[in-house]
Structures are given as structure tokens and as C-alpha cells.
Amino acid sequence: MYQYTHTWFFSSAIYEKICDMVDVSAPHTILEIGCYEGLSSVFFADKLLAHPESTLTCVDPFLTIDTNDHAGLMSNQTEEYFDSNIRSCQHPDRVTVHKITSDAFFPQNKATYDIIYIDGCHEHDFITRDMENSFAVLRPGGMMWMDDYLGGDGIQIKAVMDRFLKAHEGEYEIIYKLYQLAIRKVETAATGGPHSVNPHPSTDISL
Q1: Exposure winner among 10, 18, 169, 204, fewest CB in 10 A?
Q2: What pLDDT score does 1 carry?
């Protein structure tokens, strides 16, 4: 049914656990930063968009920029697979796709979300901005998942995410922490409106 060349998402914690952590029949407003071929996107669409008020917002520039840190893994076929998979998923009418960088997306975003999945650019500054900007529009009680917490050498990406955790201590609870990192925003934490940390739309990459 779906087209893909890599199956990383099938071994992820969010794939295995999230349906047991939320009410799948309830309305969900989901933001995904970095989509690749769309396996995570169609999983969210198929499993979490049953309620007619549920939505999924996908943000990924694909190969529209030259500084793509995943360019070696991507081709025009990547975007074609993504488009085809979204068309084939359940509830495609509840999915909105922004083929832009996350830095370009956040200043124009006016929504808040109860589930956010970040698998964007792995450069340190971009990780920080994606986490800060996402957390600002995460609703209290909502969950934010980060892929590749122990990715790369297992040290550098983890250190960047740990700095975010330290800066926001008391505003979240950790709900998962192995290769991926997941937090739930505490009910007393504030939720911002449109927000952007040091945006540079010409350079940010979300893959």
C-alpha cells in the first residue's frame, strides 16, 4: 500500500507506544517536523486521526534547499513517495503539508498542538530551535517526541537535547528516554502563540 525505501520508523518507540498512551478516538492536533517518505505521517493519519476534528500538519522542505543534512539519503523519489503515501492514507483530508523549513513554518503558525514529533535537521542549532519553537506551541498535557536522542555518536545530539531539558526543568515530565526522548508538558506550563527562536528560513532544514 505504502511506498518506502527505509523502515526506521517501524522500530521506533513512538510507533510502538503512542497508541497506548493516548485516546486514539479523541481529537488530536498533531505537528510533525521532518517527514522523509511519510511512514510516520501515514501512521499518525491511520491511527490518530479517527476523530473528525483531528488534524496532522507535516513540515518538510524535502530537496528544495541546498544545505540539506540528509541529502545523501534523498532524491526526488523521496518526495514522490511522501506525496503518494499521504494520498493513500486514511483521512488525507485531515492532513496539511507545508513543504518549507521549520524556521519558515513557525512564524506563520497560529495553532497549538497536543502531539508533536520532531525528526528534523540534526545540526545542533536546528535541534534547539525546533525543540524551543515546538514546545512553545505544545499544549499543557501534550507530548513532544524527539527522534535520535542517542543518534550520531550518542553524545552530541543528546547533549543538545539535555540542555533544553535543563533550561525547561519543571515545565515537563519525561515519559520516555532511550533512543528517542519524549516529554509531556505539565499542566501549569504556558503555551505561546506564533513563536520563533532565531529564525533563518533560508538555512533551516527539517528532515
Answers
A1: 169
A2: 85
- List CB contacts of 65: < 8 A, sequence separation 6 or more: 101, 202, 203, 205
11 burial level (CB within 10 Å; 0-12, 13-18, 19+): exposed
| Cell 513517495 belongs to residue | 81
Which parts of the chain sit beneath pLDDT 70? 63-76, 189, 192-207
**How far is the C-alpha of 64 from the C-alpha of 205, rounded, in Å?**
10
Single pTM value for the model: 0.88
User: For residues 185 and 81, what is the distance between their CA atoms, to the nearest angstrom?
Assistant: 33
Say how many C-beta atoms besides its own lie within 10 A of residue 202's C-beta: 11
Per-domain residue ranges of the chain: 8-185
CA atoms of 177 and 172, how far apart (whole Å) = 13
Pair type for strands 113-118 and 29-33: parallel
pLDDT in tens, 132-159: 999 999 999 999 999 999 999 999 999 9
Grid cell 519543571 — which residue? Answer: 170
Q: What does CATH list as the number for 8-185?
A: 3.40.50.150
Beta-bridge partners for 96:
57
